[in-house]
């Protein structure tokens, strides 16, 4: 059963359309991420589910019930904000217990629930402190405890990790996923951070300019981008203009300048159905730089020259020229990175590539 | 000079102009007033220097002064409550306005461009016997003769509220502006109605602003003498009018000094009590 369903949701702010005819199903118990750059409509969508703003058109249902006209305080949702939004004048225990006051729960039960929630977020000892006495990561855990203690139908997370330091953010990512898994709550997560989305989600909804670009599992959106936007937004991609010569049983035969013919597997190009203009997508980490003398394997090998190197410690990002194209390659460093100006062999497997229909935008 | 010594000296260098001004223009004159209050005004009109308790005795025991002090505090309290009740919603509206915030704040500051005395006197043109309200009532045939609405305690309070409301609105506005708007959203998502969220979250967090505005309104109205002079009747004198009367009209500086110190002591004590219960440290806890 779907926990949340959006049907043809439109949101207009004056003359500006923030969300265009959005439809999606969020299965019960799943972790769904709305991913996109700022201004893509992801937060607006979340706020419409929460009831903080009303959709201009379309229906929102939660557990099969249309909730467009149900005010926020009757929706039974857990909401976690980017800036935590803890009540600064209340202790941690009072913060967590806040939502229980409006539910028919005895005092003893409420105390137990607060205690359990604090244990779930691994902060059982802070109940008498005030929010300001906690670190950012701890405050975010408390915000999570406050949202889940009311046993909401859906947990809504609005960029909950983006105010944290990089290291803490990765820890919280694991922690958040652990808690979500443990209580099995349907979760809608909003982020602009692709690695968060890839690491945490069951399904990712990639959005751009108020429209859904693609809905799919992390592997699907990463490996089989449905549009140029998706392939550029997730990871680093080389997107090259090509011509699709033929579509046959083994795949799509693409032809492009300086590369010759590259045959992309059909499942990696679900949107290309016929011959005509197309684009070849090669992920930067699938493009391997090698010494010109290295033995050939099943990869296609092209001659290139390293134009710039961005050293990243365990890996390096190379800008490499192959004929008329400047390509990006992200490779693990074996001994030492290639230097600028080095002539290299640029290699990739056609089965690691994807294809998009149409000419480059 | 060592760096440490220079750093220690720096705050004092920066503070010195203000400290000099406060010292010479406030503290020294205040000491003069303290000294004056122990002098004695003789029958000839000359002041007799010395150490007499006669003025203090009169100021502290005469029920006339006590009654006016109490009615001054009552008027100040009513004014403060009226400012809070009228100012809070206005401040809330401005703080939550999506656009035109700067314009609304400008409109709030606009009255300060006109002299307080002129603004007070404007009520004579509105409520006076030949004022706008009476003109309307007469022309509509509601009354046959102009109604005397001015020169009583309610008009004094009206004038004070008119003068002090912007102070209250600004103080509450600053407090509301510092409250994260998502706190109310969070409260609502947890099951409280908008009104409950306001009572549980926004109101307590804005109390420091309300308290600061209240203190300002109270002290300023308790110390006023222009408003009762312009808008009050003969029996509506407030305590500062007594000081004015003693010093300017009767030229009795010793008695005026004792009376003004008495008002200062009462208001000072109230501020200390206020500070104890709504202490600044306590006030800041919710914000910062």
TrEMBL record, chain A:
Gene3D superfamilies: 2.40.50.100, P-loop containing nucleotide triphosphate hydrolases (3.40.50.300)
Broad class of enzyme this protein falls into: translocase
EC number: 7.6.2.11
SUPFAM superfamilies assigned to the protein according to its UniProt record, in alphabetical order: MOP-like, P-loop containing nucleoside triphosphate hydrolases
Top-rank lineage group of the source organism: Bacteria
Domain ABC transporter: 4-234
One GO molecular-function entry: ATP binding
Enzymatic reactions: ATP + H2O + polyamine-[polyamine-binding protein]Side 1 = ADP + phosphate + polyamineSide 2 + [polyamine-binding protein]Side 1
Complexes and interactors: The complex is composed of two ATP-binding proteins (PotA), two transmembrane proteins (PotB and PotC) and a solute-binding protein (PotD).
Function: Part of the ABC transporter complex PotABCD involved in spermidine/putrescine import. Responsible for energy coupling to the transport system.
Protein name, UniProt field: Spermidine/putrescine import ATP-binding protein PotA
Organism: Roseibium sediminicola
UniProtKB/TrEMBL annotation, chain B:
Compartment(s) of residence: Cell membrane
Pfam families named in the record: BPD_transp_1
Keywords (A to Z) from UniProt: Cell membrane, Membrane, Transmembrane, Transmembrane helix, Transport
Domain of life: Bacteria
Membrane topology: Multi-pass membrane protein
Occurrences of domain ABC transmembrane type-1 (ranges): 69-274
Entry annotated with the keyword Lipoprotein: no
Gene3D superfamilies the record matches: MetI-like (1.10.3720.10)
Transmembrane regions: 12-39, 73-95, 102-118, 124-143, 155-176, 210-231, 251-274
Similarity field: Belongs to the binding-protein-dependent transport system permease family. CysTW subfamily.
Protein name: ABC transporter permease
